[in-house]
Amino acid sequence: MTIEKAAQIRVGDQLPQGSLAEYCEVATGTCSIGPNTFNTAELAKNKTIAIFGLPGAFTPTCSAQHLPGYAALSEKFKAAGVDEIWCISVNDAFVMGAWGRDQKVTNMVRMMADGNADFSRALGLDADFSKFGMGVRSQRYSMLVVNNIVKQLNVEQGGKFEVSNAETLLAQLS
What is the number of alpha carbons within 13 Å of residue 111 lying toward its C-beta? Predict the structure, then answer.
């Protein structure tokens, strides 16, 4: 069975229907204890969300630069009107939860699992990393979503980390 690649989402498009999972060991205002699955359309309704996608939890650039950048600027995002920051990766909710704890981003960044890459595929932002033994993953990107509509989109070229960083998306808010 061949899965057809979706067209890449664009500024002005509605966020596709889908689900993401989050694992919390301690209940928060947005996540009860245990793995929780959320409908993306419901979760993004009437909110401004900074979303960034990356190839994998615990990977070098993702752990050293991408996630820490959003955590470090989380208060500035909130001051600019962002309700939530989501980190999306094609890992399971347990791995994403462990990575969030390791990076100490609890209450700053929601660690959202796209376990089968279904949401990344629906965005048209999936990537085949099979040659690296990693299967289908997410491309590296950032976007600003306001009430389910994409307002900004920054997609990296393969292997780069230049436009999806927190500083770029934060600058686009002003």
Answer: 31
Which residues on neighbouring strands pair with residue 75, listed in sequence order?
none
Q: Which residues contact 131 (CB under 8 A, 6 or more apart)?
A: none
3-state helix, strand, coil in the chain (%, to 5): 30, 30, 45
**Enzyme catalytic residues:** 62
Q: CA of 113: how far to CAs of 71, 87, 118, 168, in Å? A: 17, 8, 10, 23
At residue 100's C-alpha, the angle toward residues 129 and 143, to 5°, is 60
C-alpha 95/C-alpha 111 separation (Å) is 9
Per-residue pLDDT tens over the stretch 47-79: 999 999 999 899 888 888 999 999 999 999 999
The residue whose two tokens read 């600027």 is: 73
Domains in the chain: ranges and CATH: 19-172 (3.40.30.10)
- Name the one residue in this structure whose structure tokens are 């990296």: 156
- Give strand ranges (E) for the chain: 19-24, 34-39, 48-54, 84-89, 110-113, 126-128, 136-138, 141-146, 149-155
Measure the CA–CA gap between 141 and 53, rounded to whole angstroms: 5
pLDDT band for position 137 (cuts 50, 70, 90): confident
